[in-house]
Amino acid sequence: MTVERLLHSLADGRMHSGEDLARAFGVTRAAIWKQVAKLADWGLDVEAAPGAGYRLPQALDLLDAEALRAALEPDVAARIGKLELFTELDSTNRRLLAAPPPLGKLDVCIAEYQTAGRGRRGRRWSAPLGSGICLSVGWQFAGMPAEPAALTLAVGVAVRRVLERVAGLTIALKWPNDLVFDERKLGGILLELDAEAHGGAHVVAGLGLNVALPAALLPSLSDWPRGAVDLQTALGKAPRRAALAGALVNELAGLLADYPTQGFAAYRTEWRSADFLRGRPVRLDEPAGRLFGTALGIDSDGALLVETEAGARRRVVAGDVSVRECR
Predict the structure, then answer these.
(1) Which of 5, 58, 143, 153 sits between 20 and 30 A of 170, alpha carbons compared?
(2) Where along the chain do its domains lie?
(3) pTM of the model
(4) Active-site hit among 120, 240, 283, 314
């Protein structure tokens, strides 16, 4: 047997006796116990009751490739180069960065659990198996697109559109890559762009989105003052992950195909309307030191504008911006 088969048996959230599982898989009860330990490595809190068996505290909405493909629009499905779904992977971004897809094709990689998920500036991002969406898409531009630095912001708008359409949830966007609801972190974006020797540009856009996490885990997932939030908390009921992941792929496919001609102009107004930082006192951590001021919004190509305490206006293209206590 494999741990994946055990996972699918327990995904319904019901109690399953060790004896029945051992009989169904043709293994010993000790073998079942060893595989249960692997589920714990994936962040799942498996309840073991003597004489009763094993269960997960809540049912898991596991993804499968067939359901994902069914959620894709026909024109997007025709452009998929490869669609990979892993139970466990180090990093979906890392997987797609290894090789660019052919021009006009979109590579998609999704993992139920990441062992080395990353955020901006190398920060680790992790969540229990099946509790979020760990999704990356890879695309190759024929040449370096205009306003490449704003592409992360455009991806944020694309995710925002999907959450409004699929889940009825309106979120805010924190420069440059965070998804915000109720002043708590809902997810983040990691975009990596690599110029190719032939003049093209390989881009991988990764998304980590909190869907249905254990409530006790949420405070530890973010160092924001109010912590993190998931869709289940925000909505009262989490949307089906396959439908949500498919809608995200559809939206991102359109963004990447059209960005060379549309650029950030097609997303700028919407990003400004969702700007979480605008008008807030902020702290900017840069290699040269720490800066305090007030966020004024973004300029035409997506750079953050900050008015310092001294009254000077700064244009910020990189750095960590915090709305935590400024002093």
Answers:
(1) 58
(2) 3-55, 65-273, 281-322
(3) 0.91
(4) 120
Q: Is 185 a catalytic residue?
A: yes
**Better-scored residue on pLDDT, 40 or 118:** 40
Catalytic annotation on 105?
no
pLDDT digits (tens, 9 = 90+) for 119-140: 554 555 567 899 999 999 999 9
Catalytic, 324? Answer: yes
- Pick among 3.30.930.10, 3.90.190.20, 2.40.50.140, 1.10.3720.10: CATH of 65-273: 3.30.930.10
Q: Which CATH number, 3.40.190.10, 1.10.8.420, 3.30.70.270, 2.30.30.100, labels domain 281-322? A: 2.30.30.100
Indicate which residue of 5, 14, 82, 324 is catalytic: 324
For 138-150, the pLDDT digits (tens) are 999 999 988 999 9
Check if CATH label 1.20.120.340 holds for domain 3-55: no
Active-site position among 184, 185, 241, 268 = 185
Burial class (CB in 10 A: 0-12, 13-18, 19+), 323: middle
